[in-house]
């Protein structure tokens, strides 16, 4: 009841005014396309916006949709961004989180930590089940809490053209078990006692030991690797896999489970400076078919990964939720694992967790082999670098009265410009959770002001005075903050433009020229795809680039340092994650120096 009341009181996502979006679209194009292209696009915009024209008709359609639905965008977004997206979820969609290294070094420690973690998730789940989860606020406004109710007991199911999501969080079919994977073997572990109380750490530890001891063989078929495939191939393989009754039951048990715990084999040891980058890769893809990629079911919304060597984190399937609710859950778990364990009463023996069996036919075997090949190519292709920027954290920009997020985004602009000599379309996620069922819109970090700043920054001081550069930096960060505010209030341009395009498809009218224009393609080709995912825990989220020649950049600004995870593809000769990290570090330092320098000092 409480949740429903809260949800109903939230405002609906507005449809921004048409003329406003079109003006802002033209503005956003200025720093990323030539004047000639811009003039051409302006003509298309003028045609689109004319009174009684196609723009107005589509806008009216959107406004009607907004009246009829809880959120005019959320269903469309779920389908377009996730369920109809055909690339593998691995690397291309599912984010990972790197947690600080745990100080255990053996199996006992691994299982004890896993048990405590499971207990921590179940503790959080109690708040979800009782509807006692505290409402979150942004800028004093309550946020939509719906995503919290979608992340447990859910799973993505592949389909030939479109995937779907199942959820077993409520009702008679409510899940009572989790899945545990070890050496590519899946187990169904009931995590509630018959009286409905969750299993304690001690009980869970014993159950995990049983699982471990019955899955010591290391030659099992990595069935989970099928979930790493292109969605159409996986959908075919899925139908094939489920023809067998045992396989079907096993897959259903995984899909229905509350979440998955992956007990990973240790990865090869690496030096301290690349350790975190290696863990980020392990979280994103599992390291390939020889390592832990078969120790996953990537369609599962939440998979916690705990390796024997103390590396741990998670990977999550993106369709049901954005990063912030996932990280809030993680913060809760991390705090929970630090609590001292209570002394428990004697334990009643528990049944052996059920092993989920798979019958591998020759056809399934071929599907697994194909999936392995494709996955190993993806693993080779992903270049990921975790950088801990130690020199300062969000306190420094705050002390300069600058939004830390805007400061970091301008540093990314400067780094990119220094590397490539031009600006690119840049995506930053902005939360739309002030609205009912709100997901995200895009903050376009590249602006006329950001371009002016990055162009001036490296000009010799004689030609552009330091005070001028400083003003340009301040102006660029203000422009960024203004765009961010506009986005979180539902007035950004990207989802509105997408809505107009999808409305045209739904109305069966031809797609307006505006969306067939090269400038539109350039605007949607996000060479920098970025996101801030703040956490109390000293962790970092990571994700892959969204275009073949781009970067994925995720960051967690802490008070005195910033955690960055940067990704690129090795197959693109022009991109390099470590190089981007180097330029980013330099940009952050140079920007601090600029703000701190006196008018006479030299940069
Ligand atoms: N002077 C001093 N302090 C300032 C400031 C200024 N000019 N501007 C901002 N600050 C402070 C803020 O008050 C805030 O303080 P806090 O640390 O006490 O909370 C802090 O600096 C951070 O603010 P800012 O850097 O501006 O960012 P934000 O926290 O408002 O976040 C977005 C901005 C866009 C990232 C956020 O609104 C958002 O939408 N996040 C969701 C992103 C998302 O969904 N990502 C996941 C995708 S999977």
Automatic annotation (TrEMBL):
Main location: endoplasmic reticulum
GO molecular function terms listed in the Swiss-Prot or TrEMBL record: carnitine O-acetyltransferase activity; carnitine O-octanoyltransferase activity
Keyword Acyltransferase part of the UniProt annotation: yes
Catalytic activity, EC: 2.3.1.137, 2.3.1.7
Keyword Transmembrane: no
Biological process (GO), any one: fatty acid metabolic process
Domain Choline/carnitine acyltransferase: 13-586
Cellular compartments per GO CC: endoplasmic reticulum; mitochondrial inner membrane; peroxisome
Chain sites annotated for binding CoA: 394, 398-405, 431, 481, 532
Keyword annotations of the record: Acetylation, Acyltransferase, Endoplasmic reticulum, Fatty acid metabolism, Lipid metabolism, Membrane, Mitochondrion, Mitochondrion inner membrane, Peroxisome, Transferase, Transport
SUPFAM superfamilies: CoA-dependent acyltransferases
Compartment(s) where it occurs, according to its Swiss-Prot or TrEMBL record: Endoplasmic reticulum; Mitochondrion inner membrane; Peroxisome
Catalytic function, reaction form: 2-methylpropanoyl-CoA + (R)-carnitine = O-isobutanoyl-(R)-carnitine + CoA; 3-hydroxybutanoyl-CoA + (R)-carnitine = O-3-hydroxybutanoyl-(R)-carnitine + CoA; 2-methylbutanoyl-CoA + (R)-carnitine = O-2-methylbutanoyl-(R)-carnitine + CoA; decanoyl-CoA + (R)-carnitine = O-decanoyl-(R)-carnitine + CoA
InterPro entries the record matches: Carn_acyl_trans, CAT-like_dom_sf, Cho/carn_acyl_trans, Cho/carn_acyl_trans_2
Binding site for (R)-carnitine: 427, 429, 440
PANTHER family: CARNITINE O-ACETYLTRANSFERASE, CARNITINE O-ACYLTRANSFERASE
Known function: Catalyzes the reversible transfer of acyl groups from carnitine to coenzyme A (CoA) and regulates the acyl-CoA/CoA ratio. Also plays a crucial role in the transport of fatty acids for beta-oxidation. Responsible for the synthesis of short- and branched-chain acylcarnitines. Active towards some branched-chain amino acid oxidation pathway (BCAAO) intermediates. Trans-2-enoyl-CoAs and 2-methylacyl-CoAs are poor substrates.
Summary of subunit composition and partner proteins: Monomer.
Name by which UniProt lists this protein: Carnitine O-acetyltransferase
Organism whose genome encodes this protein: Dromaius novaehollandiae (Emu)
The organism's taxonomic lineage, starting at the top: Eukaryota, Metazoa, Chordata, Craniata, Vertebrata
Gene this chain is encoded by: CRAT
């Amino acid at each position: 009841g409480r949740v429903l009341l809260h949800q109903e009181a939230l405002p609906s996502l507005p449809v921004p005014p048409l003329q406003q979006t079109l003006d802002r679209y033209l503005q956003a194009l200025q720093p990323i396309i030539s004047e000639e292209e811009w003039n051409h696009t302006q003509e298309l915009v003028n045609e689109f916006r004319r009174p009684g024209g196609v723009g107005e008709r589509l806008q009216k359609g959107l406004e009607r949709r907004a009246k009829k639905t809880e959120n005019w965008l959320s269903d469309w977004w779920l389908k377009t961004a996730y369920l109809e997206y055909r690339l593998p979820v691995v690397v291309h969609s599912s984010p990972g989180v790197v947690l600080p290294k745990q100080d255990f070094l053996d199996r006992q420690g691994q299982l004890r930590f896993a048990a405590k973690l499971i207990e921590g998730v179940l503790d959080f789940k109690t708040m979800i089940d009782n509807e006692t989860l505290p409402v979150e606020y942004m800028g004093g406004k309550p946020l939509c809490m719906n995503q919290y109710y979608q992340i447990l007991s859910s799973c993505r199911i592949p389909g030939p053209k479109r995937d779907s999501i199942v959820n077993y969080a409520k009702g008679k079919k409510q899940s009572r078990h989790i899945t545990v994977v070890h050496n590519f073997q899946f187990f169904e572990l009931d995590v509630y006692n018959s009286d409905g109380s969750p299993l304690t750490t001690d009980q869970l530890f014993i159950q995990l030991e049983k699982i471990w001891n019955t899955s010591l063989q290391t030659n099992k078929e990595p069935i989970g690797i099928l979930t790493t495939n292109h969605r159409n191939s996986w959908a075919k393989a899925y139908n094939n896999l489920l023809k067998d009754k045992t396989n079907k039951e096993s897959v259903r048990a995984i899909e229905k489970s509350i979440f998955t715990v992956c007990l990973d084999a240790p990865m090869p040891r690496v030096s301290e400076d690349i350790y975190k980058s290696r863990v980020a890769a392990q979280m994103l893809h599992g390291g390939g078919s020889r390592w832990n990629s078969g120790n996953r079911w990537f369609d599962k919304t939440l998979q916690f990964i705990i390796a024997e060597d103390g590396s741990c984190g998670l990977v999550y399937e993106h369709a049901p939720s954005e990063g912030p609710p996932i990280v809030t859950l993680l913060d809760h778990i991390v705090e929970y694992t630090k609590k001292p364990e209570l002394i428990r009463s004697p334990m009643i023996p528990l049944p052996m967790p059920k092993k989920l069996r798979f019958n591998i036919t020759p056809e399934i075997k071929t599907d697994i082999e194909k999936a392995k090949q494709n996955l190993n190519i993806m693993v080779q292709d992903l270049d990921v670098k975790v950088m801990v920027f130690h020199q300062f954290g969000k306190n420094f920009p705050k002390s300069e009265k600058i939004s830390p997020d805007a400061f970091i985004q301008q540093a990314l602009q400067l780094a990119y410009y220094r590397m490539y000599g031009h600006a690119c379309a840049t995506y930053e996620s902005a939360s739309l959770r002030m609205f009912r069922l709100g997901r995200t819109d895009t903050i376009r970090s590249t602006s006329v002001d950001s371009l002016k700043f990055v162009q001036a920054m490296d000009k010799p001081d004689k030609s552009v005075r330091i005070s001028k550069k400083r003003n340009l930096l301040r102006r660029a960060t203000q422009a960024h903050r203004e765009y961010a505010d506009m986005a979180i209030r539902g007035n950004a341009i990207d989802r509105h433009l997408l809505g107009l395009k999808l409305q045209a498809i739904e109305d069966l009218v031809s797609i307006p020229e505006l969306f067939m224009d090269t400038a539109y393609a350039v605007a949607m080709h996000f060479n920098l795809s970025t996101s801030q995912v703040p956490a109390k825990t000293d962790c970092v989220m990571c994700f892959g680039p969204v275009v073949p020649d781009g970067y994925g950049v995720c960051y967690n600004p802490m008070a005195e340092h910033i955690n960055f995870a940067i990704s690129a593809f090795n197959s693109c000769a022009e991109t390099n994650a470590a190089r981007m990290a180097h330029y980013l570090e330099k940009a952050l330092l140079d920007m601090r120096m600029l703000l701190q320098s006196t008018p006479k000092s030299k940069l």
